[in-house]
Amino acid sequence: MPFIANSDADRAAMLAAIGVKSSDELFLDIPAAKRYPELGLPDGISELEVLREIESLASRNVAANTCAWFLGAGAYNHFIPSVVPALAMRGEFLSAYTPYQPEVSQGTLQAIFEYQSMAAKLFGVDTVNASHYDGATALAEAVLMAYNHGAERKRILIPAALHPEYKEVLKTYLTAFEVDIAEYEGDPKAAAAKTDAASCCFVASYPDFEGRVHDLTGVADAVHAAGALFIVHTDPIMLGLFKSPGELGADIVTAEGQALGNAMNYGGPFLGMMGATQKFVRKMPGRIVGQAADHEGRRGFVLTLSAREQHIRREKAVSNICSNQGLVMLMATIYLEALGKQGLKAVAELCWNKAHYAAAAIAKLPGFSVAPGVFFKEFVVKTPRPAAEIADKLARRCVVAGLPLSRYYPDRTHELLVCVTEMNTKAQIELLASSLAEVTK
Amino acid sequence: MNLTPEALAYEISSPGRVGVALPLCDVPAAALPAAMLRAELDLPELDELTVVRHFTRLSQKNFSIDTQYYPLGSCTMKYNPKANDQAASQPGWKNSHPLVGDEYSQGSIELMHRLQEGLSATGGFAGVSLQPAAGAQGELAGVLMIRDYLRDIGQGQRKKMLIPDSAHGTNPATCTMVGFEVLTIPSNAEGGVDLDALKAACDDSVAGIMITNPSTLGLFERNIELIAKIVHEAGGLVYGDGANMNAIAGIVRPVDLGIDVMHYNLHKTFSTPHGGGGPGVGMVGANALLLDYLPGPIAVIQGAKYAMAMPKKSIGRLKSFYGNFAVLVRAYTYLRMLGGNGLRRMAENAVINANYLKVLLEKTYKVKYPRRCMHEFVAMGDVAEGVRTLDIAKRLIDYGYHPPTIYFPLIVPEALMIEPTETESKETLDAFATAMIAIAEEAKANPALLHEAPHHTPVGRLDEVAAARCPILCYRG
Lengths: 441, 477
Known about the structure:
The structure holds 2 protein chains of 2 kinds.
Chain A: H1 8-18, H2 47-58, E1 68-69, H3 83-88, H4 91-94, H5 106-123, E2 127-128, H6 135-149, E3 155-159, H7 164-173, E4 180-184, H8 188-191, E5 199-206, H9 219-225, E6 229-234, E7 252-256, E8 272-276, E9 289-293, E10 299-303, H10 310-313, H11 326-363, E11 369-370, E12 378-382, H12 387-395, E13 399-400, E14 403-404, E15 415-419, H13 426-439
Parallel strand pairs in A: 1-13, 3-4, 3-5, 5-6, 6-7
Antiparallel strand pairs in A: 2-8, 7-8, 9-10, 11-12, 12-15, 14-15
Helix pairs in contact in A: 5-11, 6-7, 11-13
Chain B: H1 48-59, H2 82-88, H3 91-94, H4 106-123, E1 127-129, H5 135-152, E2 160-164, H6 170-178, E3 181-185, H7 195-201, E4 206-212, H8 224-233, E5 237-242, E6 261-264, E7 284-286, E8 298-302, E9 305-309, H9 325-361, E10 377-380, H10 389-398, E11 405-406, E12 415-418, H11 426-445, H12 447-451, H13 464-469
Parallel strand pairs in B: 2-3, 2-4, 4-5, 5-6
Antiparallel strand pairs in B: 1-7, 6-7, 8-9, 10-12, 11-12
Helix pairs in contact in B: 2-9, 4-9, 5-6, 9-11
């Protein structure tokens, strides 16, 4: 087997040094009747054969690179510059462990420090941690932070238009705690007044699941006046253009960072981003990297504030989180540095312009209308026939039109969530509009 | 290693530079809501070559499996075959979307189904869920499954979880997240669970036990079947922490030993890269009793098609969508290349390597529990007056080795937890042992060499206390 160096002769010498005749003698602690079961697994095959099998399986998916693609809803089709995978897949990054030995992990540690620095600027907060499993778990952990901070406050205000799967994850994470999750409809500015002395936090989705961007000015004041924390869940691409949550008074900011240089990969691995203002740094879960100096005064980076974490505090830890999304975070770091100040803004502008062009084109079609209000990258289209039926017809023409909202809301049969990014050309947008018109004639 | 200091991206930024060219906008510009826009965006400005050199140089400041021997106990730093990455890089995976509909994702779902079947076979599970994104999430899933099952059979008062004192910190932290109380069970003289303490703890408040087998001491729990029997008879369930499956995959199925629910770290046993901290997968498997409680959705066969479906009594979702899919592709690739015969060979070689290295080292470094070990062993670094395990670890870096895990498990003073893995050759183990023995001699003859180590790294030992006292967590330009 190519992944085992030792030959039979090597093994014989090693077994002799150990003082046993065969490796079977090393497993005598395992109950004899249970040892060496028949697993029913086929024998191993060669790399060539496995790769052929994998290629054949992968080709059975409908993939965004072969269609006109307008589906987002939490997983986004954005451009990934070649430098991102080329650098991130270097073995020195890919096959390194968590940087617990800082002297031999400065590459990983400095990259995380740069990620934290850039994400903090993007979010407009003081500190960002070294990532969570995805946006949903980052948000769930942020709510837990607020709940633990709020002592007796049991109420959690979340938008009705939060990603439905995020709501499910929130429910799982909060299952052991006595909480009251209350959903509010529509504009957070109006809803913020509902924050009261029993509320530990008010969550805003910026943009929300349906692509709407609510103006959050003044929300923080109302939430803080009630003594609660303001949590904003956001899209990092949108922040290339729009005001940062920190500027709008958020205490904790979370985001799904997949769009920053990571492929959709059928939904994972993604990047859970979390940041907070200075006041909450020591309450944040997850790994955090800090700057340090050695005895000669040379700058270096270390994992820090570990007194919060499970390997030190065990049952008193702020979360059980251990591993993070290191490689995904590295991809986001390379992406942000390659695009930089101008590039991220340009991506956001392309998304803005193309999505608005698409919305205008669809709104003109007979029987179709587009939800009003400010939106970014995504918008809801009312359809004259069931959206699932339309999406299915278009998919057969290699146009993936969006997400029929009936997937999550059985009553909303005639609504389609359409996503447009820099990946969509004008010709694709026109193909979408003409295809929608044709299948609903 | 690259010893030259590398400036931060912000420090080498220059106004007007950009590293990626984007297409010109081919549609008319739409008006922006001016009052909602940000005034400035402080990101670095770099050209492409500068970005490439920056990250290439940073990479050269890391130790990694591809460049160094990495005997990091409990982490299974085995070689990660390149075929895994090649398999995961297929455009059909990278560009597949979790919400396009099962009909259009048959390739992804079939792969997940095949992996579920393969992993079930290795553990004797009735079914598995690939959703947990990490070992800690697998634990959360498993303990929630136990809680819900107990609730459903009218035993919801059981909220006490028994955890051996050698366990990973995630075990007790997970119990807190589930609202369980933790009762620590001491180890006996041979490093196993103290059965008297276990029996004394078993009453009608016990939800179960979380047991790592082989334990973090690298020892197989000989009494595992008896432990499971005691806990089951008391009305509790047995959670298996599969962090150390590398020693027993293909040798024994955990369910056959009385385990009810268990997680595996696919980034350990199934060779998916650690990526400097993640992403991992903490797949969770269950016996028939707990099958319906698995987190979901999971891959199933419906008629002639594959579909994603929620188990009947599922504890729910742990993350959005279906798990860390690109990691699953890597694990599947590895499992196919190994097959049933290869898995057993993998475990046998991991255990041979560990016992061989233990024999080479145990005359110099005491091993607290001198039994035959499984895939790892825990030695002690107190080889000379005034020298600590930390000093030995740092000196190993001068010899070009990544240090073992240190000061864990907590029950062994000055612990050096060494896991050689099966992918290392006899020559590598011999050379590592020679270095360890040389360091023990240095510790007596010239301890300053150890105290000042490492000598040949981009930075020396960093002042972590000062870093935590006044944290600098972002660039302050």
